[in-house]
Amino acid sequence: MTAVYDIRDLTIDLYTRSAAVRVVDGVSLSVAAGECLAIVGESGSGKTVMSFAPIGLMPEGVSVGLTGGVQLAGADLIAGGEATLSRLRGREVAVIFQDPMTALNPARSIGSQIAEVCTLHLGLRGAAAEARALELMRLVGISDPEARMRQYPHELSGGLCQRVVIAMAIAAEPKLLIADEPTTALDVTVQAQILDLLRDLRVRMGMAMILITHDIGVVSNAADRVAVMYAGRLAELGPVDQVLMAPTHPYTRALIDAIPRPEDPVGSPFRGLPGMPPQLAGPIRGCAFAPRCPQATSGCATLRPPMRGIAGSVGWQAACHHLTLAVLPKGAAA
Amino acid sequence: MTNPVLEVRNLVTHFRSVERGKTIKAVDGVSLHLNAGEIVGLIGESGCGKSTLSRSIVGLAKPNSGQIILDSTDLSTLKGGTLRKARSAIQYVFQDPYSSLNNRQTIGEALEEALLVAGLPAARRSARIAELLDHVGLPATIAPRYGRELSGGQRQRVAIARALAMNPRVLIADEPVSALDLSVRAQVMNLFFDLSRNLGVACLLVAHDLALVRQAASRNYVMYLGKIVEEGASVQLYGDPRHPYSRALLASAPNPDPMAERARPRVPLTGEIPSPTNPPSGCRFRTRCPVVQEVCAASLPPTVEVAPGHRASCFLVSAE
Question: I want to staple A85 with a disulfide (CB 3.0 to 4.6 A). Which of A56, A283, B171, B245 is the partner?
Answer without folding.
Answer: A56
